[in-house]
Write a structure and sequence with these properties.
alpha/beta, Rossmann fold, Arc Repressor Mutant, subunit A, eight-stranded mixed β-sheet, 28 helices
């Protein structure tokens, strides 16, 4: 069997010609065994809501201590949170609900405001700070972690009585898992902790770790049954649908490929869909789904370009549609355009309006993605073509989800899907209260490993591993309230240390920020000392391990490269009175893309901005070199992001700035958001640099405007 955990694909990202049409035509057909299954399609009978046993058990468990709820996507985790929050508030307490993404946080804020009353709910994401005295606060996990830093520094308790960490499996996220781990370590024992997670393999290990560091009982509530049954399908290149797996009802028995699918998988295909680099005929596939009542659908595709091109293919073969639903979609789109005028001329509006299909990926503006999500949630679209990130970041289930690839691009390589990623995607199939059954269709192609997908259907959820790593921001913030010896004891509470001590595998980042194949329990401490020595050498920390004055204000720069920015202020390199200049310079620091600055038109901006940029770049190069020599990361500064943010801050049109930036809209929006976040942290050091702090506040107002941040409500 394919080892889906270890196999790694090395291949180029296939290019798709925008002019190429479908290479196959598919005609609807279905295997006789599906007749009974398709007969179950429909809307379940309306019944009064009755909580599932796991939901009731979770509420009982949180009365006694901490609770980790691990259930399939869409099973009803939010209901537990709502009831637990209501109980806390009714008892006169305060609740903090932490979510991994700003989009999810905004959605939960709206839901909770409707449920509990707007006056009782506040939001804190960085972009938004509203009603902070409310008994219920919804925010991002990073904000909660930062509040814990501040509380430890002041020697105060966190001003809440109950904390919910949604999407707690993010503990194992390579980039952001450290934030979840820190939050769990620093959270005061008196505050009950409710963890809501997708299914994970080592829930009891995580609970054991929490009990060891918090001295509270942590109950694991596990549910494996989906609220809506899932049936896997196989779409043959002819257009005929087959069962993907055999029906084996023996408890615990693995389901194998359906005999006709086995036969297909055994043949080496040298042409057609199995070898083509092109997308299959999406219009034909949608007509097949329509024929068998399998819409609405979500297609998971490998790239943004594929998502966009799928719209073109879908439009080549129009589907019949109920005129009343079509008119309803038109009206709703007009309402959304009225709320957000910028989307009226979106290049993909035609496909949305006329063909009921949309593309959803990170290259698009957040407000456009919100329009797609709204229409899909309201049942007005037939299909969304999305990259795999939609599985974790958005809640719009469909009747059917479809896979064209058994791997995904993680930013560096194409890697096979893990069981957790796969189950999170399939969790979108089947809408609770709207479907009797959900479907997952596997479409064969050049990069579809049918045996791997068979293994994923049978695989248990993957384990979560610690992703804790030391950085300068963490080091400075811990030294605000702890001595080095106390930090050493704190690091012993890490999930990584617990996993190693319990004899299980663990993944810890080495001082060079590379995975260490033979981790040792002392690695975190050694890495901390490595950071500490550098901070002492640069006089951010004294010889006895306390922060200097510079170290204290630098600790408030909770950003990716705090020392580079701090050195810029130390050397008086940054503009402190011109908000457009400051926004431009910060954009260069947060940018993560490579550019050819030789082709950047410097005449688009004042000469003084270019001179300021060169002065900063040259002034910080020796320090950046020292960072790299000591195996720390340092940003490479490019001028094009600075040009882009300067023009945007000075009022240039969105279309003009997008063209100059050489970025997709979504990437540019993210650059603006990250620049604003860095500026907020500069605003926090007003006691030391009041002029720069005031200028930062003005810069934030200049760059957070339509259409990056909509001033309208959808």
């Amino acid at each position: 069997m394919t080892d889906y955990r270890k196999k790694k694909y090395h291949r180029r990202r296939p290019s798709v010609s925008k002019k190429s049409g479908p290479v196959h035509r598919l005609k609807p057909g279905s295997d006789a065994k599906l007749k009974r299954i398709f007969a179950d399609i429909g809307v379940p009978e309306e019944k009064p809501f009755t909580p599932d046993p796991f939901q009731v058990q979770s509420l009982e468990a949180i009365k006694k201590g901490d609770c980790l709820v691990t259930v399939p996507t869409g099973a009803g985790k939010t209901w537990i949170a709502e009831q637990a929050i209501a109980r806390t508030v009714e008892g006169g307490g305060k609740a903090w609900y932490a979510s991994p993404l700003k989009a999810l946080t905004n959605a939960k804020f709206s839901e909770f405001a409707h449920l509990f009353g707007a006056e009782n709910v506040g939001i804190l994401t960085g972009d938004r700070k509203e009603n902070m005295d409310a008994p219920i606060i919804v925010g991002t996990t990073e904000i909660l972690r930062n509040q814990l830093y501040d509380a430890m520094h002041r020697g105060q308790d966190l001003n809440t009585d109950f904390v919910i960490l949604d999407e707690a499996h993010f503990l194992g996220d390579e980039e952001r898992g450290v934030v979840w781990e820190e939050t769990m370590i620093y959270l005061p024992r008196r505050i009950p902790l409710l963890l809501l997670s997708a299914t994970i393999g080592n829930a009891h290990q995580i609970a054991g770790w929490l009990e060891s560091i918090r001295n509270n009982t942590c109950t694991v509530i596990k549910e494996t049954e989906r609220p809506v049954p899932l049936y896997p399908l196989f779409l043959h290149p002819s257009g005929t649908l087959f069962p993907f797996l055999t029906e084996n009802k023996t408890p615990g028995a693995k389901k194998r490929l359906y005999k006709k699918v086995q036969k297909f998988a055994a043949v080496k295909h040298s042409s057609g869909m199995m070898r083509s680099r092109q997308l299959p005929p999406m219009g034909d596939i949608l007509n097949i789904l329509l024929t068998y009542r399998l819409l609405p659908s979500i297609f998971f595709l490998k790239s943004r370009a594929d998502c966009d091109h799928a719209l073109v293919l879908a439009a080549m073969c129009p589907r019949e549609e109920n005129p009343e639903r079509r008119e309803q979609r038109f009206r709703r789109i007009d309402e959304l355009i009225e709320a957000v005028p910028h989307v009226a001329d979106h290049k993909q509006m035609h496909y949305l309006r006329e063909h009921a299909v949309g593309a959803h990926h990170s290259g698009q503006l957040p407000v456009w993605k919100l329009v797609i999500e709204t229409l899909m949630t309201e049942g007005l679209l037939d299909a969304v073509f999305a990259t795999s990130t939609v599985a974790a970041g958005v809640n719009f289930p469909a009747r059917t989800i479809l896979f064209l690839n058994s791997d995904r691009f993680n930013g560096r390589d194409f890697m096979p899907l893990t069981a957790t990623e796969f189950h999170q995607m399939t969790g979108r199939a089947g809408r609770r209260g709207m479907d009797n059954i959900g479907f997952c269709a596997v479409i064969p192609g050049r990069f579809m490993d049918l045996r791997l997908v068979e293994a994923l259907f049978n695989a248990p959820p993957t384990d979560v591993f610690s992703q804790i790593k030391i950085n300068f921001s963490m080091t400075l913030n811990l030294l605000l309230s702890h001595s080095p010896d106390q930090v050493k004891e704190l690091l012993k509470k890490s999930f990584a240390a617990f996993q190693l001590a319990s004899g299980g595998p663990a993944k810890i980042a080495s001082p060079a920020n590379a995975p260490n194949s033979t981790p040792d329990a002392t690695i975190l401490w050694q890495d901390f000392l490595h950071h500490l020595d550098f901070l002492k050498e640069k006089e951010y920390v004294t010889d006895d391990g306390t922060l200097t004055g510079d170290g204290e204000w630098t600790s408030q720069l909770r950003i990716d490269h705090p020392l580079m920015v701090a050195e810029g202020f130390r050397k008086n390199l940054f503009p402190r009175s011109n908000p457009a200049y400051l926004a431009a310079i910060m954009a260069a620091f947060v940018n993560e893309r490579e550019f050819d600055d030789d082709t950047t038109d410097t005449t688009l901006v004042p000469k003084t901005l270019y001179k300021t940029f060169i002065k900063i770049d040259q002034g910080l190069k020796p320090f950046a070199r020292e960072l790299v020599e000591n195996e720390f990361a340092a940003p490479i500064l490019y001028f094009l992001p600075a040009v882009t943010l300067y023009l945007w801050a000075r009022g240039a049109s969105w279309e003009e700035v997008v063209k100059i930036s050489r970025m997709p809209e979504g990437n540019l929006a993210m650059l603006i958001f990250r620049t604003a976040d860095n500026l907020r942290h500069i605003r926090n050091i007003s006691q030391v640099f009041p002029d720069a702090a005031e200028t930062s506040a003005r810069a934030i107002d200049l760059i957070l405007r339509d259409p990056v941040v909509s001033t309208y409500e959808i």
